[in-house]
Design brief:
heterodimer; A: Arc Repressor Mutant, subunit A; 4 helices; 46% helix; B: alpha/beta; FAD/NAD(P)-binding domain; D-Amino Acid Oxidase, Chain A, domain 2; 2 domains; 8-stranded mixed beta sheet; 6-stranded mixed beta sheet; 20 strands; 26% strand
């Protein structure tokens, strides 16, 4: 299968070819590649792509996958509607 | 042991712009050292806004010159991607009479410096951002030429251009010590290398004070945590950055389609903490629900924090020092280092090459605090 047609990050529509170009350009950590390609910045927050990218970096640098650092995990665990947070925050204040 | 004509501490946007401008002037053996990955500090954490609507003359001039550069950056840096400079403006909301009066003065100042900002009524503002809550503000100012630049890609554009000019970069390497003998810089020691040099640039962002301390130069800056959230992407619905100082919010839709928004914490302490807090999420959600109810229908997918490196007058320090020859700094940007980066690199290069500076730039010197010179204070900050 053509590398152009293999989608690594579904949220941001990034192909394996783009990941490989990024590696060739010298960006060889998950954090670097995230900032250049936006992989892992979409709604799933890297739950699919980060492991795949970690594996590609390991192959490229000839390392074990576990020796390639993972990206920083940030809140939230899942997407939440902003006005729902506001409502909870205001209701919570009333209950104090 | 590496021989360097200059060592730049920090590969954030300021360090990158300085490295590029120095290399462009013909300097060789420039080494830039950064303790972590590409744009790991404040640059990669910033709100991606670029504006000229300021309350002090100095900030207005710095901003205008930088905006002019963003307009030609792709070409000048020969960047084959796009820095995503979008000039859809900044809309600043006045929510009380004091702010309304201050904004009138600010617009007069900005116009006198060639910045095309204007005062708007609520109705006029609603024509630009129809989903604003009309009851949340009493007037506004707008500048069409303000807007957005992608911090990652702008950094990459400078980085690649600097590398092409021969600049050496050392990521994942931390500066530990700067050796000074008889009031002259001799050496920079990192956790991986030693650099023989007589010139050091402190572009360490949130850690600028600590780098000053390495050579005994007291820099009156401190770091404070500011947080941001980003939403899922959606159709283009909001052109300009919407901002209110009194309501404590900035909120823009970036070209990618997601909304970025942030606020400051009035109780923040001096700290290098950059962790996310639920308090931020609560307060941010309440404010955006009030001012931009339509935007509050979106899902927040991520939050993060970063450091503002605050100076006493909320204006940058771009300076050499009286005490130590060869020590330079670009710090204290007070949350605006990204949008001022182009002029920062140009000015510090002129200082390092001992060129005559334009008159306005004298006010950027560290001495303005030492001599207790009266400086204007920037209030237009979130």
């Amino acid at each position: 299968m053509n590398k152009k047609d293999i989608i690594i990050c579904r949220c941001e529509d990034i192909s394996l070819e783009e990941v490989h170009q990024c590696l060739e350009a010298g960006y060889t950590t998950v954090e670097d590649i995230k900032r250049i390609l936006r992989v892992g910045m979409g709604p799933c927050q890297g739950q699919t792509c980060s492991h795949l990218i970690q594996a590609e970096i390991a192959k490229f640098l000839k390392l074990k996958k576990e020796d390639v650092s993972f990206q920083k995990t940030r809140p939230l665990v899942t997407g939440v509607v902003i006005e729902d947070i506001a409502k909870q925050a205001i209701d919570g204040d009333d209950n104090d | 042991m590496i021989k360097a004509s200059i060592v730049i501490v920090g590969a954030g946007i300021s360090g990158l712009s300085i490295a590029y401008n120095l290399a462009l002037s013909g300097m060789k053996d420039i080494h830039v050292i950064d303790k972590s990955h590409f744009t790991n500090g404040s640059t990669g954490r910033c709100g991606a806004g670029v504006r000229q609507q300021w309350g002090t003359k100095l900030n207005c001039i710095l901003a205008k010159k930088s905006i002019d550069f963003f307009g030609r950056a792709n070409k000048e840096l020969n960047y084959d991607k796009d820095i995503e400079f979008k000039q859809a403006g900044y809309l600043l909301l006045a929510t009380n009479t004091d702010e309304d009066i201050q904004f009138q003065k600010n617009v007069e100042l900005q116009n006198s410096l060639g910045i095309p900002s204007k005062k708007l009524t609520v109705e006029e503002a609603l024509k630009i951002v129809p989903h604003l809550n009309p009851n949340s503000f009493i007037s506004a100012t707008f500048c069409q030429t303000d807007g957005h630049v992608n911090p990652f890609l702008m950094s990459e554009a400078y980085y690649l251009a600097a590398r092409k000019l021969g600049v050496n970069f050392h990521f994942y390497e931390e500066v530990k010590e700067i050796i000074v003998e008889s009031s002259l810089i001799k050496k920079v020691v990192s956790d991986k290398n030693e650099y023989i040099t007589d010139k050091v640039v402190n572009a360490a962002g949130g850690f600028a004070k600590e780098v000053g301390d390495m050579v005994g130069i007291k820099i009156p800056v401190f770091s404070e945590k500011h947080e941001i959230l980003v939403t899922e992407r959606t159709m283009p619905i909001q052109g300009p950055m919407v901002m209110s100082f009194s309501k404590n919010i900035y909120c823009q839709q970036v070209p990618h389609g997601s909304f970025l928004m942030g606020r400051s914490n009035p109780n923040a302490l001096e700290s290098h903490d950059i962790s996310s807090s639920w308090e931020f999420l609560d307060e941010m959600a309440k404010t955006v629900t009030e001012i931009l109810p339509k935007v509050a229908k979106l899902r927040v997918i991520r939050t993060w924090g970063g450091s503002y490196n605050l100076s006493p007058d909320r204006q940058p320090i771009i300076s050499d020092t009286d005490e130590l020859k060869g020590f330079y700094m670009a710090c204290g940007f007070s949350g605006h280092g990204f949008m001022f980066a182009p002029i920062t690199g140009e000015l510090l290069t002129e200082i390092i090459l001992d060129k005559q500076l334009d008159d306005y730039a004298a006010d950027l010197h560290l001495n303005r605090f030492k001599n207790n010179t009266k400086t204007s204070f920037e209030h237009s900050v979130v």
